[in-house]
Amino acid sequence: MPELRKDPISDRWVIIATERGRRPSDFKEGGAGKVTEGKFCPFCEGNESVTPSEIMAWRKPGSEPNKPGWLVRTTPNKFPALVVEGEVNRTGIGIFDMMSGIGAHEVIIETPKHGENLAEMDEMQIDKVLWAYKQRIGDLERDKRFRYVLVFKNYGEAAGASLEHAHSQLIATPITPRYIKLELTNARDYFHEKERCIFCDMVRQEMGDGTRIVSENEYFVSFTPFASRFPFEIWLLPRRHQHDFSIITDEERIQLARLLKDTMVRLKKCLNDPPFNYMIHTSPNPVPRAGKPDYWGTVQYDFHWHIEIVPRLTKTAGFEWGTGMYICPTPPEEAAKYLREIKI
Questions:
Q1: SS3 state of residue 48
Q2: Which CATH number covers residue 182?
Q3: Cβ atoms within 10 Å, residue 25
Q4: What is the rounded CA–CA span in Å between residue 122 and residue 266?
Q5: DSSP secondary-structure letter at 37?
């Protein structure tokens, strides 16, 4: 059984993922953009029997669950960091807090085509991937044991991907992760002081200035953050205030697919198909907490969901680990200019 353990100095929770200790080392070769021929892939269409039974899928009419005919497919992770069965038992050993490793860990297989990535998919296929994200976040938020659901994607070996076939993952946790909590707290403090959403103010300022804008459409904008941690880091935000990714409309989802594809094509062409991670930061599960009836009670007003895209171009080294500060060798204004100049 996995465990969550809390470091009392940094206030950081760590997952001790016992289930992943037996993880095989297959499919380790090959980096971003490189398709390894001749290797068995469990995510390819026709190999449904070697993955856990699907939770949901976008299927062609008449196709059966766990059979070919899907366009996007979600399954439990075969080697989960957290397990869905059981109760969240909180305990302590002296000064150390811990709890049972209860959560959900799922894989969203983005396409039946091996070797196709986001920059190569058509917009309607990306829309189906985003639909899967929305459905799974909304469903898992109905489970009162879970405080937060994070959707993330690892692309390329350097970014942590162990399988080449295009896929994303999500993990639902019984706590709000420390970095998310920091964003939520700062956004709430800003709102209490100014009665405005800090993310909305950021969108207005970036669009007004323009030097860090990468791309935009009617509903969304992507830009390189003013204080970028990493070279060519990109954030993608809704232009109108929206705190929860799971309430995105169908029209907004289509426009998001369009802008996400545009952004990923620019990254691929500009940086020669780099490894990257992206994460969707959405609002926490609004389930009440014992003794804290107003837990994140203003989140619908002060938080703004967004996607953070981090190309893996540099390595985190001693200074970053020791201080929590980052050294970014490329000014975000220059990065945005390079990306805007790419011909789509």
A1: helix
A2: 3.30.428.10
A3: 6
A4: 15
A5: T
Where does residue 53 rank: exposed (0-12), middle (13-18), buried (19+ CB within 10 A)? Answer: exposed
Task: State how far Cα 211 lies from the chain centre.
Answer: 26
Query: Any idea which residue has 């029997």 for tokens?
Result: 49
- Three-state SS letters, 253-310: HHHHHHHHHHHHHHHHHHHCCCCEEEEEECCCCCCCECCECCCCCCHHHHCCCEEEEE
Q: What is the pLDDT of residues 101-147, one digit of tens each?
A: 999 999 999 999 999 999 999 999 999 999 999 999 999 999 999 99
Distances (CA, A) of 43 to 26, 30, 77, 156, 215: 13, 16, 12, 16, 32
**pLDDT at res. 21:** 54
- At position 76, the amino acid (one-letter code) is P
Q: Give catalytic residue positions.
A: 167
User: Tokens 């969707």, residue?
Assistant: 280
178 is in which domain, residue-wise? 3-340
Answer left, alpha or beta for residue 66, where phi above 0 means left and psi between -120 and 50 means alpha: left
Structure tokens, 329: 């060798």
Domain count for the chain: 1
Q: Which two tokens stand for residue 177?
A: 């992760």
